[in-house]
Design a protein that fits this description.
Strand content: 5-15%
Mean pLDDT: 85
Number of helices: 10
Largest sheet: 8 strands, mixed
Shape: globular
Strand order of the largest sheet: 3-13-5-12-11-1-10-7
Distance between the termini: 61 Å
Helix content: 25-40%
Low-confidence stretches: 1-37, 187-200
Number of strands: 15
Structural class: alpha/beta
Order of helices and strands: HEEEEEEHEEEHHHHHEHHEEEEEH
């Protein structure tokens, strides 16, 4: 009896302190054999670049017409005939898998760097971000990692402007790729996983305690207890649903994450971990937030004297303005390269990119006038055949004709939350957002 009471007290303290969360990433959570599945399962990655993608021209930055360095020079509103621009050219290797969208507005279209509060959310900035919505709908083989959040250099200067949200609570990304790897894969070797007993119901005693405790307390105490123990029970269920990864271990160097000197290496390590998690089937949804809005950590490939925020504002001239935007987009290309290395974990013979949708965007359109009109949005990857990205040459689509939100600059734009609604519908779920969440047509084969 004393042993039972001690176990209850221990579990309650763990749940209240949040100490059970790390258990979900341990090797112990990976004790089942991975089943072979022939059915395609969509994966989605959000790749977020700070301070816009220079959608306005250098000579006239307030014209809001999209004649900058990002949008392709297209021969029509919906066409496969277009020329990539000076920044979008960085992704030329993946043109055939790309759909460039134009005509979007984020929230009110103004607000400068506050766009990080809306970038992946509803236009009121009050609900869960789309990565969390999809994470619940598209669990991987380890449900505790429903929505991976990697933050290479995001907030390393102490400013937590993060784009992923759980309801009204901001999520903190893992900034260190080595720690991210450990949390996902738990450091367990394949040999140790194979030695574990598959049918060990280690959480059965916990469930018995849960049932007994709920029957003995009442009122506010019961409500508080139920909240903690429900979370514990969810962890137990997630762990029992987990299956091991089949990827080979990654060799990652543990570089200082706040050092500009190692910026490229840290970024590349994040790419490796996220790609491995998707390629192993651990998760099907991930967000990679590169830096943060108005970030201050220099990009030495661009300038040792001017930080990325000042580059975006064009304070140091046109060369570093363009160079910084190209560097960010080049990281998206390198991430795509990493994804391309993996076979799909669900469909034998297919590559991971055939069943992945990569969404590239920012928290603003242009960093100099700091507006959120004509937001850059690029959809890439095979997306299990759902993405309407042309027939081998890529596609450009201006969606302003479907606009629902007016702006004082003239005309209507498509509210960004409708894109998240459209992606959710393509993935077989929906967003809990208020206002107009009608899907945008012409993007996915299964959404009309």
């Amino acid at each position: 009896m004393d042993l039972l009471k001690s176990r209850r007290r221990f579990l309650m303290q763990l749940a209240a302190a949040g100490a059970l969360v790390p258990l979900s990433g341990s090797g112990f959570a990976q004790f089942l054999l991975q089943p072979e599945q022939a059915a395609a399962r969509l994966k989605v990655v959000f790749f977020i670049i700070p301070d816009g993608l220079a959608v306005d021209s250098y000579s006239d930055p307030v014209q809001h017409n999209g004649n900058g360095l990002w949008f392709p020079r297209a021969q029509g509103e919906d066409t496969t005939t277009f020329e990539l621009n000076e920044v979008s050219q960085e992704l030329a290797a993946y043109r055939s898998q790309s759909l460039y969208l134009q005509g979007l507005i984020l929230a009110t279209g103004t607000g400068g760097h506050n766009g990080w509060m809306y970038a992946l959310r509803d236009s009121q900035g009050s609900m869960s971000s789309i990565d969390r919505v999809l994470g619940d709908a598209l669990p991987g083989n380890q449900p505790t990692h429903r929505s991976l959040f990697a933050g290479p250099h995001a907030g390393v200067d102490g400013t937590p402007w993060y784009v992923s949200w759980e309801g009204g609570a901001i999520r903190t990304p893992q900034q260190n790729p080595v720690r991210l790897y450990e949390s996902v894969f738990g450091g367990a070797t394949r040999a140790s996983r194979q030695g574990l007993v598959r049918n060990a119901h280690v959480f059965d005693p916990i469930r018995a305690d849960i049932a007994e405790l709920r029957s003995r307390v009442g009122g506010a105490q019961r409500e508080k207890l139920v909240t903690h123990l429900d979370a514990l029970e969810q962890v137990a269920q997630d762990l029992e649903s987990a299956v091991p990864s089949v990827c080979e271990p990654l060799a990652l160097d543990d570089h200082p994450i706040s050092s500009a000197q190692y910026r490229n290496q840290v970024q590349a390590s994040h790419h490796k971990v996220v790609a491995a998690a998707l390629g192993c089937g651990v998760t099907r949804v991930a967000t990679v937030q590169v830096g943060r809005s108005a970030e201050s950590l220099n990009i030495l490939d661009v300038s040792a004297a001017t930080n990325p925020h000042d580059c975006a504002h064009r304070y140091a001239g046109e060369e570093v303005w363009k160079g910084s935007r190209q560097w960010y987009v080049r990281q998206a290309k390198l991430f795509m390269d990493e994804l391309a290395r993996y076979d799909d974990p669900d469909v034998p013979g297919d590559k991971l990119l055939q069943h992945t949708l990569v969404v590239l965007t920012s928290e603003m359109a242009d960093g100099a006038p700091e507006h959120m009109l004509n937001m850059p949005l690029l959809l890439m990857g095979g997306a299990s055949g759902l993405l309407r990205n042309g027939s081998g040459n890529g596609r450009y689509l201006n969606i302003r004709s479907q606009g629902d939100r007016s702006h004082w600059t003239g005309g209507k734009y498509v509210d960004m939350q409708r894109i998240w609604s459209t992606i959710a519908k393509a993935a077989g779920t929906s967003v809990p957002y208020g206002g107009d969440i009608s899907p945008v047509t012409g993007i996915f084969n299964n959404v009309t």
